[in-house]
Design the sequence.
C-alpha cells in the first residue's frame, strides 16, 4: 500500500484513522482501554533499521523509493484518544491518528496489537476485581501466555484493578508490586514437607507464604504454624474444593492462634470462581490462565479505519469523510469524531455520545479524548497508577448493572449526535 | 524458592522436571508441539544482567548470595523433548529438563510460556490446514494479539501447516514466506476505486491482489480486470456471504477471461468456516483472530513438574521419583519418563505409551524424545521447515478420526507401561 501510494502521489494526503470496536465481546457490559502507554512508547520508537531495510530489499518486498522513505520514517503526526483505564463502548473512538496517509497507515498493526491485547486482559481483570470486592488479586499467569505478552498482561491487569504480579519482569519493566509463593516442586525437592517449610522460613522469615496442599492440608497447616509460629504470613491452597478448604483452614489457623495468618487461594480461578468465594475466609486470590487469556475473550475486535482524508497534499487541504459501504456488517461511519459521556442528574453515566459535527455545549466539558502525541512528540506520559486510578473512577461512574458478572448488553447505549 | 534452597543446601540436588499436560483442550483430538526452537534460543540466552540484578537487590526480592548466584547463571544441564511439530496427547512428556534444582527451576516460566502459547496456535493452525485441504493458508492475525506474540504466532502457524504470513516481522525473524494485500483504507484514500486499483497495479503489476469489497463487488471485479487485464493475480473478498460471493466472482472472472485470477477470502475465518467453503471456488484463505487465539483455546494447560530428584548434591547421586499427592485432580506421576508411539500392522498410530522403567524392545525404535540440549549446549537446531514437515508426517500417521473437526476424545489413548 505504501509503495503504491508513494508512486501514485497519494501518500502525502492528510488522513485520519480511528480505532474503535463495533461490538463488545458477547455478554460484556463495558470495555477497558489499556495499552495506551505502551502505544506511545511504540509510536515513538517505530523505525526501520538497517537489517530490516536489507531484508525488505533482498526479498523485494518494496522498491527503492519506498526503502528510502522508510529509512527516514518517524511519525510526525498527532494522536488523540481515550486515556488509559477509561471504559469504552461499541463505537467509542478509542484512538485517533492523524498524519499523512503513509505515516499513519504504517502504525495500524502495532497500535491494534497493543490495544486489542492489553484491553482484553484489562477487561477480564476489571471483572475479577469487581468479583473480589476489596480483596487483593495477584496476577500469576505468565506461564500461560507468550513470554512477553505476559509482561504486558501483568501491566494491563494492574490497570484493571489487580494488586500485584508474580512476574518479576513486569515489576522490573513497569514498577508493578511483585509477590511470590513457593511451588510444589520446592516441597518435593526436600526430604520432607517439614524440611521444605523450615528451609523457606529460615530464609524468608515467618511472614512468608507456605504452600500447604502438596500432601495433606491439615497436617501441613499444623506444621506450618509449628515451624513459623503464629505470625506466619500466609498459607496458599492450590487444589481441591477451595470453599470448603478455606473454611477448614481458617478454623484450624484460628485454633492454633494464627489468627492473622492469611489464606491465599489459586487454581484456575476466573471471575465466577472468585465471586463464589466471596463468603469464604479468603484473603487474596492468585489468578493465572483466565486472566491472561481475557476470561474467554483473548482479544478485542478493535479496528483501525480511515475515516477522513484530504483530496490533495498539504496540511491545510480540507478533509473529506470516507467510509466503506459494502455489505456484511463491516460498514463504518466516516468523519473525525468526538465522544463524550453524558451523565444523569445523579452524576451516573447514561450514554456514550459520539458525533462528527460541533460538540453540544452541555457535553463540551465531558469529552473523553485527550491529546497523546503532538507533531510526533508524546505529550501525555503518566505513571501506571494514574491509569489504574482512572479505571476505578470510570467504572464507579457507570450504572450499577456494570458490576453484574452475568451476560448482558453494554451498560451504556452509544448515541450518534 | 531459589534463595531458600541455596541457603538450605538443597539447591544443588540433581532434579528432573517434565513438561506435560493432563488433558487436551475440550473436544480436541491431538495436540501439536510448537515453540521448541524458541525454547532453545531462550534457554541459551537466559541470563541476569546488571539492571535486573540491581532491581532484585533494590526491591530486596532476593538476598546477596542469591544475587551472586544469579549473576553467574547459565543453564548447564540437559534437555530432551518431543521434536517440534510432533503431535502429543495427555501425559506425553513433551519436554524434560535435568540439572540442579536451582538451574532447572528458573526455566519453568519461560519454557511454559513459549510452549503453551506456540502449541495453542499450532494446534489451531493444524486443524485449519486439515480443513483447507491443499489450499494455501495465509496468517493474518498480527493485529489481534500482542505485538510480539504475533511474530511467534506466525511461526507456530507455519509449523501447523500455514503457507505464509502477512507479518513482515515474522518473515524477517523466521524466514517465513510473506504476502500481503491492500486494505479498504487504500481504496478510500483515493478519489475513486478506479484510481486506487490503477495505483496498485501501476506499482505492483498485474499479479497483485486487489481488494474488491469496498463498495460494490461486481463493479469492482469488472474494473479490476479492466485495469489489470485478464492476468490479474487475485481478488480478495473480506465481507459478506463468502460462499455465495466466491461462486459469483469466479463466474464473473471466468466470463471476463480472467480464468487464472485467484480468489482469496478473509473475514473472521476459523476451521469450520474454512471447511464450509471447501466446495466454493476459493484459492486461498487469510486467517486472523481465530488462528492467533487458538480457535477457542488460546493456551494449552502444560505444566512443569518436578518428577525426580537426588537426596544429596552431586551428579552421581541416585534419583528418587517424587509426586504431589494431594486431592483435586492435580496429582502427577513421579519418575523420569520415556514415551513411544505404538503403531498397528498398517503403520497407523494406536497408542501413546509412557513409562518410567526400561523401554520394551518393540518400542525402542519408536521413542519420541530427542536430545535438545547437552550440558547447556543446544544440539538440535533445525530449520523451521523441518518442524513443519515433521508435523505433516506425524499427523498423517494418526488414525483418520484425527482429521475430524467435530469434538471428540484424543485419538490415541495414553498407556502407562
Sequence:
Amino acid at each position: 500500500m505504501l509503495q503504491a501510494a508513494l508512486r501514485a502521489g497519494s501518500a502525502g494526503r492528510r488522513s485520519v484513522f480511528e480505532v474503535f470496536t463495533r461490538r463488545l465481546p458477547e455478554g460484556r457490559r463495558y470495555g477497558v482501554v489499556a495499552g495506551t502507554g505502551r502505544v506511545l512508547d511504540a509510536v515513538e520508537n517505530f523505525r526501520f533499521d538497517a537489517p530490516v531495510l536489507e531484508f525488505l530489499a533482498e526479498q523485494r518486498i518494496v522498491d527503492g523509493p519506498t526503502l528510502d522513505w522508510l529509512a527516514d520514517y518517524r511519525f510526525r503526526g498527532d494522536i488523540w484518544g481515550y486515556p488509559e483505564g477509561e471504559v469504552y463502548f461499541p463505537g467509542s473512538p478509542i484512538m485517533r491518528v492523524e498524519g499523512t496517509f503513509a505515516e499513519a497507515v504504517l502504525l495500524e498493526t502495532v497500535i491494534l496489537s497493543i490495544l486489542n491485547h492489553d484491553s482484553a486482559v484489562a477487561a477480564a481483570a476489571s471483572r475479577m476485581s469487581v468479583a473480589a470486592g476489596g480483596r487483593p488479586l495477584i496476577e500469576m499467569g505468565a506461564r500461560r501466555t507468550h513470554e512477553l505478552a505476559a509482561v504486558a498482561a501483568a501491566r494491563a491487569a494492574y490497570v484493571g484493578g489487580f494488586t500485584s504480579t508474580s512476574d518479576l519482569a513486569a515489576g522490573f519493566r513497569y514498577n508493578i508490586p511483585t509477590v511470590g509463593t513457593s511451588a510444589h516442586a520446592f516441597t518435593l525437592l526436600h526430604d520432607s514437607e517439614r524440611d521444605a517449610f523450615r528451609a523457606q522460613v529460615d530464609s524468608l522469615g515467618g511472614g512468608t507464604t507456605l504452600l500447604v496442599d502438596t500432601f495433606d492440608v491439615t497436617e501441613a497447616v499444623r506444621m506450618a504454624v509449628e515451624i513459623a509460629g503464629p505470625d506466619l504470613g500466609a498459607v496458599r491452597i492450590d487444589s481441591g474444593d477451595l470453599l470448603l478448604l478455606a473454611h477448614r483452614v481458617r478454623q484450624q489457623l484460628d485454633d492454633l492462634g494464627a489468627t492473622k495468618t492469611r489464606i491465599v487461594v489459586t487454581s484456575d480461578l476466573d471471575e465466577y470462581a472468585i465471586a463464589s468465594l466471596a463468603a469464604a475466609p479468603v484473603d487474596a486470590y492468585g489468578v493465572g490462565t483466565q486472566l491472561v487469556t481475557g476470561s474467554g475473550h483473548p482479544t478485542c475486535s478493535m479496528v483501525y479505519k480511515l475515516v477522513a482524508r484530504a483530496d490533495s497534499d498539504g496540511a491545510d487541504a480540507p478533509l473529506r469523510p470516507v467510509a466503506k459501504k459494502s455489505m456484511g456488517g463491516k460498514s463504518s461511519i466516516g468523519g473525525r469524531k468526538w465522544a463524550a459521556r453524558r451523565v444523569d442528574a445523579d452524576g451516573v453515566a447514561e450514554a456514550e455520545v459520539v458525533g462528527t459535527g460541533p460538540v453540544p455545549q452541555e457535553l463540551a466539558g465531558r469529552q473523553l479524548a485527550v491529546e497523546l502525541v503532538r507533531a510526533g512528540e508524546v505529550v501525555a506520559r503518566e505513571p501506571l497508577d494514574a491509569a489504574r486510578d482512572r479505571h476505578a473512577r470510570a467504572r464507579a461512574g457507570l450504572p450499577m448493572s456494570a458490576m453484574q458478572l452475568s451476560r448482558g448488553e453494554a451498560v451504556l447505549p452509544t448515541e450518534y449526535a
